[in-house]
């Protein structure tokens, strides 16, 4: 087999392999695996040179037959010594379904200021906390939003910034659960003696409220685009039996400062409630946007998630005309809301699109059961899908190639890549986000088997279509029967994104649970234990795997993984695309299968 493989490289039969001959075969391997797009070479000169230098022992610029044999047999010996080749410690112990939500770092008695430099000027203030911009001390250009909340109301006094501890737990649980393109992503939490800090992705475009103040109102077209995204986020949350309970212009923010970019995210889930666990009775939220049944609940009468629908109606009304539908003191406001009495005939309503008026009118119903259900809101003829730049054919091909590569990765590699995806914000997910939105035809924030099938079909890849069930099963890491946003983003990430130092650092800190600057066996064991959806592994197995991982990647022998070790580990996730580190048995099999023609 080695002789025949060498001959396939040695196209001119001169008994040695040149750089061009090496590159020709390697790119034929990549093309046969679907890793090339638009005839662009998968292996650049640097990558080919790396393999050439590793094999060319006499440094004459060629690989002769003896050098080829020496390289292959040495690599195969190393594989045998590693008991089967490429490092796949998790795969040896059966199916591991990963709960990606467990990859949220929660740090206790760890000083957030050791990790971030926080601006003194706050950018927002929610019901229970103040929000600041912060910069990662390791990579200052990596900015996040940090919400600081006081743990002890009695010692801190009254007012914003104080909350019952149960509120913190509920908000953390809620934000860990919700994984949607239009919901602000929670990246980590820190807790010390006095405060809890929520580290979130930074949406720099400001609040919808600011746009209303700036312009007096928001155009009908823009309003419909923004409200569509809010409804998509709420529809997803309600599917998890979670109500927001404080929808208002201050809690809808633009992702970027670019005025033409109308992507928004729903923030501040501090008043959110899981209505599956119990009835909602608290009179919470802002009076202007609160539903009549919430105002009248008085902590005794139960209400439903339809309270969010009323708030969407008020939000839409305010955006379109710049004024609230109800005003006056609490009693006057409540009476007008119960009577559904609000201005709707004068300017600008007399010239407003009838679909827009119907949308508002059918949400501002005092009887919650009469309000338009969230699913029907999403199919409203008035709501407009956000104008997203279509992903290029090259981007689609790249994402598809990454999806296929991801399913071939070891479980541990997928765990590491998913940790990267869990820490990425909207700025890093441009092309992947576009492809996801194109495939998510019903806009519910997850991909069904049929949506994935149609999306793959549109890519025009018969091989992927044929293996769609296996592909779907591998992408569905938590076994939920749908592809969540983070699962898709993890699979769609390419090596280029995953190898950015700031991105690798963010993932490293996911595993560095105690913020020590190292990943220990105990850290890994805790991550594996938390991520094992079906509890397949015992505690002993989790520790065994953690020991194996540290032993493999700890280069200085201190029984822990530092950041340099982690960078090499992350690079190892992509070795299958790196010819200088390609395993000999894999290379021989791939070359043997090639039909290179004449």
Describe the structure.
This protein is α+β, with helices and mostly antiparallel strands. The chain has four domains: about 90 residues, Orthogonal Bundle (Recoverin, domain 1), CATH 1.10.238.10; about 100 residues, 2-Layer Sandwich (Phosphorylase Kinase, domain 1), CATH 3.30.200; about 170 residues, Transferase(Phosphotransferase) domain 1 (Transferase(Phosphotransferase), domain 1), CATH 1.10.510.10; about 180 residues, Recoverin, domain 1. It is built from 26 helices and twelve strands. It has a six-stranded mixed beta sheet with strand order 3-7-8-6-5-4, with helices on one face. α2 crosses α3 and α8 packs antiparallel against α10.
- Structural class based on helices, strands and sheet pairing: alpha+beta
Unreliably modeled segments:
35-41, 79-85, 154-162, 577-581
DSSP strand content: 5-15%
**Straight-line N-to-C gap:** 20 Å
The CATH architecture of the largest domain comes to Orthogonal Bundle
How many domain modules? 4
Shape: elongated
Number of helical segments?
26
Query: Helical percent range?
Result: 40-55%
CATH top level of the largest domain?
Mainly Alpha
Strand order of the largest sheet: 3-7-8-6-5-4
Largest sheet: 6 strands, mixed
Radius of gyration: 28 Å
- CATH-defined superfamily of the largest domain: EF-hand
Using brief descriptors, characterize the structure shown.
9% strand; 6-stranded mixed sheet; Recoverin, domain 1; Transferase(Phosphotransferase), domain 1
């Amino acid at each position: 087999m080695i002789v025949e493989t060498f001959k396939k490289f040695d196209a001119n039969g001169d008994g040695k392999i040149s750089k061009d001959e090496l590159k020709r075969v390697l790119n034929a391997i990549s093309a046969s695996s679907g890793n090339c797009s638009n005839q662009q070479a998968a292996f650049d000169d640097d990558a080919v040179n790396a393999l050439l230098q590793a094999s060319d022992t006499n440094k004459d610029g060629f690989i002769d037959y003896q050098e080829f044999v020496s390289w292959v047999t040495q690599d195969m010996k190393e594989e045998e010594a590693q008991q089967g080749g490429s490092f796949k410690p998790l795969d040896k112990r059966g199916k591991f379904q990963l709960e990606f939500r467990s990859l949220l770092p929660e740090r206790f008695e760890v000083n957030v200021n050791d990790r971030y430099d926080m601006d003194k000027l706050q950018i927002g203030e929610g019901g229970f906390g103040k929000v600041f911009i912060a910069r990662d001390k390791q990579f200052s250009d990596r900015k996040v939003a940090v919400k600081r909340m006081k743990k002890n109301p009695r010692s801190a006094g009254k007012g914003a910034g104080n909350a019952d501890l149960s509120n913190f737990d509920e908000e953390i649980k809620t934000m860990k659960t919700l994984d949607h393109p239009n919901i602000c992503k929670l990246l980590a939490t820190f807790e010390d003696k006095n405060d809890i800090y929520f580290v979130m992705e930074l949406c720099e475009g400001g609040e919808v409220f600011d746009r209303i103040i700036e312009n007096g109102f928001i155009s009908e077209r823009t309003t419909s685009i923004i409200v569509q995204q809010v409804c998509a986020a709420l529809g997803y949350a309600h599917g998890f039996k979670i109500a927001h309970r404080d929808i208002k212009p201050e809690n809808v923010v633009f992702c970027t400062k670019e005025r033409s970019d109308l992507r928004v995210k729903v923030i501040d889930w501090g008043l959110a409630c899981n209505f599956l666990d119990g009835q909602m009775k608290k009179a919470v939220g802002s009076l202007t946007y609160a539903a009549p049944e919430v105002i009248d609940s008085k902590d005794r009468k139960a209400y439903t998630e339809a309270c969010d629908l009323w708030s969407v109606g008020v939000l839409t009304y305010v955006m379109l005309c710049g004024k609230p539908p109800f005003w006056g003191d609490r009693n006057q406001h409540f009476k007008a809301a119960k009577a559904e009495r609000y201005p709707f005939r004068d300017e600008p309503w007399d010239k407003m699109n009838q679909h827009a008026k119907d949308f508002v009118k059918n949400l501002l119903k005092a009887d919650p059961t009469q309000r338009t259900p969230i699913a029907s809101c999403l199919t409203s003829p008035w709501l407009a899908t956000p104008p997203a730049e279509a992903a290029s054919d090259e981007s689609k091909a790249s994402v598809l190639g990454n999806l296929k590569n991801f399913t071939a990765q070891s479980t541990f590699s997928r765990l590491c890549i998913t940790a990267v995806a869990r820490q990425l914000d909207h700025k890093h997910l441009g092309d992947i986000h576009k492809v996801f939105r194109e495939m998510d035809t019903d806009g519910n924030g997850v991909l069904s088997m049929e949506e994935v099938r149609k999306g793959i079909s549109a890519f025009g890849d018969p091989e992927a279509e044929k293996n769609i069930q296996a592909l779907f099963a591998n992408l569905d890491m938590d076994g939920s029967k749908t592809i969540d946003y983070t699962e898709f983003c993890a699979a769609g990430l390419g090596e280029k994104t995953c190898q950015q130092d700031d991105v690798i650092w963010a993932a490293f800190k996911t595993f560095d649970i105690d913020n020590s600057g190292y990943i220990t066996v105990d850290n890994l064991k805790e991550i594996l234990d938390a991520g094992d959806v079906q509890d397949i592994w015992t505690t002993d197995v989790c520790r065994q795997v953690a020991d194996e991982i540290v032993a493999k990647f700890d280069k200085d022998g201190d029984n822990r993984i530092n950041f340099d070790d982690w960078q090499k580990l992350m690079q190892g996730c992509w070795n299958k695309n790196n010819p200088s580190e390609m395993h000999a048995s894999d290379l021989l099999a791939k070359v043997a299968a090639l039909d290179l023609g004449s």
